[in-house]
Specification:
The complex is a heterodimer of chains A (about 280) and B (about 300). Chain A has 15 helices and no strands. Chain A is about 75% helix and about 0% strand. Chain A is mainly alpha-helical and about 280 residues long. Chain A has 2 domains: about 60 residues; about 170 residues, MetI-like fold (Orthogonal Bundle). Chain B has about 300 residues and is mainly α. Chain B has one domain: Orthogonal Bundle (MetI-like fold). Helix content of chain B is about 75%, strand content about 0%. Chain B contains 13 helices and no strands. The chains are: A mainly alpha (about 280), B mainly alpha (about 300). Chains A and B meet through α1, α4, α5, α6 and α10 of A and α1, α3, α4, α5 and α7 of B.
Chain lengths: ~280, ~300
């Protein structure tokens, strides 16, 4: 009986490993193919039959991409936008989240539900008016245009409110007796306690900027103001056929976030897991 | 007397602080989202171009839209993406999450590697797969010819291009949903499984009687979010299929159509009309899902 159970258990494990290894291969092989192609020269990349490894690992493609496109600018632009959006969004969302979770004021619930209803609206509906606003404010082709509309996030506010609600009310009451004002309770007492949630929000909002393509493509037409995502769109068109160069550009663009992910795995996973939270 | 006065002062301070603290968010949402929403609906009833005067045209944009074959094809394609991708993303990511949750050795490494697409920008994903699907030198066609098959024009043949884009979308989205499901699985109390084991329940019984019912709210929410996301598919189509490709009509989504009309051709009014229709569709689909949710989602308490 015991023996039978064990073989059954083992068979289950083999199946689990097999499926997971297959999933890993499917996830990783496209990345490996990008890397291998990026180090090949053009002739090698179009050789039939196909070669898997580059005959000589060379950095020519990276040099060509760096000389044709302001890639350094793309990095600086992307990181600048990410830092300002993350800090601004954390401050604006956490203040609102505290007020929605802890303070009592007329129309509070109505306002909150109204904000939540905005999450249902597909973002494309805002794009033409937002673009017009940027034109009127003379902000097209600036990084401010990439930052400004992204500072106001209903989802981050909602998420942080959920975390504020889990903290015991006694904390507020004790601070109040000590003469601490509402803002002090928010900033000095409660905010440090929801640090993991703040990190989640920071990662999610950073990833959103990192991935966004449509808005940077629309609002900035000068290459000098492009983010990495928008810059990648430049690689095709002119170079449709030179895939080793396209892959070199892609490799440069994806690397920083993958490195960040390897160092902050736990935080990334928790952040993404939080997107599954519902009301 | 003094006590009540002090209390009401306190109350007033609380109200004032509340409004001050939600103020920045509300002003930003008001300007960039609420105002934009209503002005976009107004634009959809005008002949607005990128520059120049605006004339009110009533519902003419919508009449033109509903009479346009391009619109119906894009709408049909978008529904095909939703019907193909949403179930597959949910089923595959759920299966992977359940397997990862068994905590076999190496789970950490598996999870990390399967997660990679989730931290990669769609623009890069599009380029990588454009190369993989390349007709002459792509790795998939190399494999097809190696097995003696006829090479397939994945990104320009009308009959396969949508499936190629859908494959990329599924590849990109599975990792995100898998993490959400994994967190959900870890939230199911162990006591339930222990009780079932005492009753001699099999693995299959536990899966269908405990795991799936307990996870059904998470599955429902993930399916809803995935559906809303797939309705807005744009990035992969934009990166993988060039504007003059023969495959574009069969791959074009509603948002691709919107981008083309509003920002390539400069027809803002007409583009706005497309987004209004997109909004209406998402609203109806969400309402339908919420209605059917009652029938299969486990309600706590």
């Amino acid at each position: 009986m015991g023996k039978m159970n064990r073989t059954k258990y083992k068979r289950g494990h083999i199946f689990t490993h097999a499926v997971l290894i297959l999933a890993v291969l499917i996830s990783v092989v496209p990345f490996i193919w990008m890397i291998l192609t990026a180090f090949k020269n053009y002739e090698e990349s179009i050789r039939i039959p196909m070669t898997i490894f580059p005959a000589r690992w060379n950095f020519d493609n990276f040099q060509v991409i760096l000389s044709k496109f302001p890639f350094g600018r793309f990095y600086i632009n992307t990181f600048t936008v990410m830092i300002f959006v993350i800090l601004g969004e954390l401050l604006i969302s956490s203040m609102a989240a505290y007020a929605f979770a802890r303070l009592d004021f007329p129309l509070k619930n109505g306002i909150f539900i109204f904000c939540l209803s905005l999450m249902m609206v597909p973002s494309q509906i805002f794009i033409i008016p937002q673009y017009d606003l940027m034109v009127k404010l003379k902000l097209t082709n600036t990084l401010v245009a990439l930052i400004l509309p992204r500072l106001f996030s209903v989802f981050s506010t909602f998420l942080l409110r959920q975390f504020f609600l889990t903290l015991p009310r006694d904390l507020d009451d004790a601070a109040k007796i000590d003469g601490c004002g509402f803002f002090g309770i928010y900033f000095r007492i409660l905010l440090p306690l929801i640090r993991p949630a703040l990190i989640s929000v920071a990662i999610l909002s950073g990833l959103t900027i990192w991935k966004d393509l449509l808005w940077p493509l629309i609002v900035n037409s000068s290459m000098e103001r492009y983010t990495l995502s928008a810059g990648l769109a430049l690689l095709i068109g002119e170079h449709t056929t030179n895939f080793p160069q396209v892959m070199a550009g892609s490799l440069m663009a994806v690397t920083p976030m993958i490195v960040a992910f390897f160092f902050l795995q736990k935080q990334f996973v928790e952040g993404i897991a939080n997107t599954g939270i519902k009301g | 007397m003094n006590f009540w006065k002090k209390r009401s002062e306190m109350k007033q301070k609380e109200i004032l602080t509340g409004y001050l603290m939600i103020g920045p968010l509300l002003i930003g949402l008001g300007v960039f989202y609420v105002y934009s929403f209503f002005i976009n609906i107004f634009y959809s009833m005008t002949n607005k171009k990128t520059f120049g005067a605006i004339k009110f045209v009533g519902l003419r944009n919508f009449e033109k839209l509903f009479a346009s074959e391009k619109f119906w094809t894009a709408l049909g394609n978008t529904f095909k993406y939703v019907v193909i991708c949403v179930p597959l993303v949910i089923v595959i990511s759920l299966l992977l999450a359940i397997l990862l949750n068994r905590n076999v050795s190496g789970t950490g490494i598996y999870r990390t590697l399967i997660f990679l697409p989730a931290v990669t920008m769609p623009a890069a994903i599009g380029l990588i797969w454009k190369w993989i699907f390349n007709y002459e030198f792509g790795v998939i066609n190399a494999a097809v010819s190696a097995f003696g098959g006829e090479r397939i024009a994945w990104l320009s043949d009308k009959s396969v291009v949508l499936l190629a884009v859908a494959t990329v979308l599924i590849w990109a989205d599975v990792s995100l949903r898998m993490i959400v499901f994994l967190a959900g699985l870890q939230g199911i109390p162990n006591a339930l499984y222990e009780a079932a084991e005492i009753d001699g329940a099999s693995e299959t019984t536990k899966l269908f009687r405990i795991t799936l019912p307990m996870l059904s709210p998470t599955i429902f929410f993930a399916a809803l979010m995935e559906m809303i996301g797939v309705f807005q598919i744009f990035d992969f189509i934009y990166l993988m299929i060039s504007a003059n490709s023969a495959g574009l009509p069969a791959a074009r989504s509603l948002v691709s159509y919107f981008y083309d009309e509003a920002f390539v051709r400069g027809n803002h009014g007409f583009g706005s009309a497309i987004t209004v229709v997109l909004f209406a569709i998402i609203l109806i689909m969400t309402a339908l899902q919420l209605y059917f949710q009652k029938k299969w989602v486990y309600q706590e308490g």
